[in-house]
Amino acid sequence: MSFADYLLSGPSHLLRFLHAELAPYPGRFNSVLRCLLASGLIIVTSMALEVPWLALSLIVVFYVTQSNVVITRLVGTMFLLGSTLAIGSVILLLKFTFDYPLLRIVTACVLFFGSVYMMRITKLGVVFFLIAIVIIYVQSFVDQTDNAELLLRLALWVWVAVNYATALTLLINTLFLPAEPQLQLKAEIHRQLQAIDARLAYLLDGAGAPSLIGLPAVERGALALQKLLKFAMMRDARYRAEQIRKLAYIATVSRLYYAASELPLTLTSAVSEQVNALSDLRKACTALDSAVTLDQAFLLPVQIESGRGGIGIAPIQEMQNALQALADMETSPSPPQVPTVKESLIAEDAFSNPVYIQFSLKTLLAVLVSYVFYNAADWQGVHTIMLTCLIVASPSLGASAQKGMLRIGGALIGSALALFMVVFVIPHLDDVVGVLLMALPVIALGAWVSAGSERISYAGIQIMFTFALALLEQFGPTTDLTEIRDRMIGILLGVAVSTLVHASIWPEGEGNVLRRSLADLLRAIGKLLQPVHKYVAPTPPVPPGKQQLKVWAKLEQCKMLLSRVALEPSWEQSEHERLTLKAQTVLTQAREIMLAANALQSEMTTQLDHLPVEVRDGIFSIQEQTVITLDRYASDLVGNSCRRPPPISLSALEPSFASYVNAAPEKRDFTLFHLVDKIVRLLCSLPSWGGRVNTLASFRESYNHD
To answer: Phi and psi (nearest 5°) for 433?
Structure first.
């Protein structure tokens, strides 16, 4: 769910959402500290040297300060390049069109349109975003003065404010508080292995409180490992050369972490075989932790092989298999490296898909409407109306609505804090130390929110920027409350104009994208359900681990898509709500099927050698049917016309399984049968999907994509 969903669902849901999003996590305090250090130095420098545009310099700090050095340097380089191109474009624009207002406006519109178009089709979007925002921002000053030299100086000072802040932020992030992705990856692996060790230790001796691992933690851990590995490969050539090996390591750790979350709270009968298996697992996890920390090959302790099989606990068997597979990979010949495919900087359909041109035209129209209102009303204070139209413009209606709400929410908090400071704090300030004591707590709050997930991070930037615009733009105390009011009104009007234009003209929804993503998720889950034909040839356990990583990533992608689709405005609200509810149902049941599939594969690996042929073949047959049914449902889902899957009968499996359990009831149970039954019930209760979408946004989207 998005921030808007929780906001509308009631105070209790909103409080739980904020508690989860604002909770500390490893690296969050480090990010806030880097923002504070850079911001404090920039405030002192700008005040001492009278460098204007302090608020702009501070927002640069927030954008450039990222979770690790790799992204920080990438964003910083883009800011240096983008600001230089933006100021150069503005100077040329003013040089040739300053005395010709109509020509200036038309040329600015052409440059703005081209920048928004390039922002949408290229991966260097931040560069063209800076060009577009500077071009349109300068227009708000041209009509206020006929002094060309003053405008030139303002433009050059913008370049100074952006670039010196970028350079200082890069220096601080590189020298004082470096956050290398390789070290972050090792730290995250260590954290997860320590949690696994604590879980195993509690099973062994029961000392202390049980350190349970929840499924949300498993999902966050898997996604964090994937992201950090990607950044580490960008940073270190050795990681790129060993991509397959490193991927096997994080797949193994994720597999261990998930299996640890499925461990029972206590052992019902701690027989010596189970105790030995747990002790061996702890030694193996410690060895894996040491291997990752020291960049050495993982060697499995010999004792763990003797503990395989016969212990009767599927998660323990799953952990043993994962560790054994990783050790086997390290001792086997190196697999062939997969050639790296360089992705193009420009979208493949950049010049054939009309959506990009439509998006640029809509954004330009919203800005022009705001420009006309701004000049007609002769209201200098609401110049943020034009900036907001560009800032909240996103490829989909849901993303635009989400960004608009975060901008409004952050601006309200920042404005309220600025108002409080103007009334109660500023009258008592007389030096730069007081300014720092006033500003740094607010900057810390904005940095803490900005370091959160993308569901709230943009609000943190707005808190800081709105506060800085109101109080830190002059080199002296601010007492004008109308500035705070006018900027807030400009933001509200900008969000309203942008939403109205984007929702009324060529509305661009993500309904089809969500259906395709759900279909990909179901197909990925189907691969987890493939029968393990261990009696024919052993199936390597590591590929399922890699497949689990893919499923977690696709699940998170679908959740983010659904949160945006739920916010899309629709002409037929009831139809939109119905489709959103069905998508939520599919996503929820897909997650349950994935968890049941993982549990089933663990149980099958544990019991396969002891299953009668008729039971084993019956389970394999049902697994194959579920895979086929999932694939068929996913294919129909893409076409937005699918029926509820037909029932899968378990009548042939139930008698043979009952006979198998009754033969030794003290050692066997119906766990396998219950898991198969759960998967079948979840699969057969997937909702049917209507054959036609009546919402205008989805109709437009179908036309554009199909």
So the answer is: -65, -40
